[in-house]
Design goal:
- The protein is α+β, with helices and mostly antiparallel strands and 257 residues long.
- It has two helices and ten strands; from the N terminus they run αββαββββββββ.
- The chain has helices at 3-42, 81-139; strands at residues 68-69, 75-76, 142-149, 157-166, 172-182, 199-207, 212-213, 218-224, 230-240, 245-248.
- A hairpin with a 4-residue loop joins strand 9 and strand 10.
- Helix 1 (3-42) packs antiparallel against helix 2.
- It is rod-shaped.
């Protein structure tokens, strides 16, 4: 486990412990409220009867349960005090529970966002490390010294030349290259005889570590075009005597020059 993953796991444990602590506090508050309601319910209800003069149509009434008549004939009822207290506490507990749920939801969202951000950062670091290793590997394969075309002959044929050095610690069995010619203003030009743009060749080894190869070796009349001036490489494939191989694409050729 990396340091970042360890830190992320510790933060998750702290968040989980904090959530458990808040749940226990809410549970304790709820139990305390229930006890209070229970005590109020057990208290004797003292009813005070008020004496009053009444005529034949009036009756005594209780202070805890009044029925009053108004001019419209409607009746109003007053609820007992313990019942009102119970309703108030119930609403209070529900508000606390909703607030806790909202807080936990925000914390979970924040944790997920932070976790995603950490994952993206870790991925970028891994990709960067992978690229660095790849570049180091390429720099320890070959070193290209010269890449050029000969002057056109009477028929417009140009020869391709590639001089390179084996800077690895392994013996090269084959080296295959590909490329195309460009004119004096940098535009690609095709072979006027074959009609092809890209071509290439293969060196046959063994080429031992530290050896320079390519002097005296060339590909005769690889293209026929009087305007061909320079050779642009597009790919190099290397196969070693131990059976391993590596492919160097166009974007990676800059690391072997």
């Amino acid at each position: 486990m990396t340091e970042d993953e360890k830190k992320e796991f510790e933060e998750f444990l702290e968040w989980k412990a904090e959530k458990k602590r808040k749940e226990e506090e809410n549970k304790a508050k709820q139990e305390e409220a229930e006890k209070l309601v229970k005590v109020n319910a057990q208290m004797p209800q003292v009813e005070e009867e008020k004496s009053m003069e009444f005529d034949n149509k009036q009756v005594p009434y209780s202070s805890n349960n009044k029925i009053e008549s108004n001019n419209t004939g409607e009746k109003s009822t007053t609820f007992p005090l313990p019942f009102v207290i119970f309703i108030f506490l119930l609403l209070f507990i529900m508000c606390i529970a909703l607030l806790q749920i909202s807080t936990d939801g925000n914390q979970t969202t924040s944790y997920k966002t932070e976790s995603t951000s950490n994952s993206e950062a870790n991925k970028e670091r891994l990709d960067s490390l992978k690229r660095a290793k790849r570049i180091d590997l390429l720099k320890n394969t070959i070193k290209i010294k010269k890449v050029y075309l000969s002057s056109p002959n009477s028929a417009g044929g140009v020869d391709a030349h590639l001089v390179w050095k084996n800077v690895s610690n392994k013996t090269i069995k084959y080296l295959t290259w590909s490329g195309y010619p460009i004119n004096a203003v940098g535009d690609p030009v095709s072979c006027e005889v074959r009609g092809t743009l890209e071509s290439g060749g293969t060196f046959t080894g063994p080429i031992k570590p530290g050896a320079t190869y390519g002097y005296g070796t060339y590909w005769d009349c690889l293209w026929y075009n009087y305007s061909a001036k320079k050779l642009v490489l597009t790919e190099i494939y290397i196969e070693y005597m131990d059976g391993s191989s590596i492919n160097i694409n166009k974007d990676e050729l800059k690391y072997v020059r």
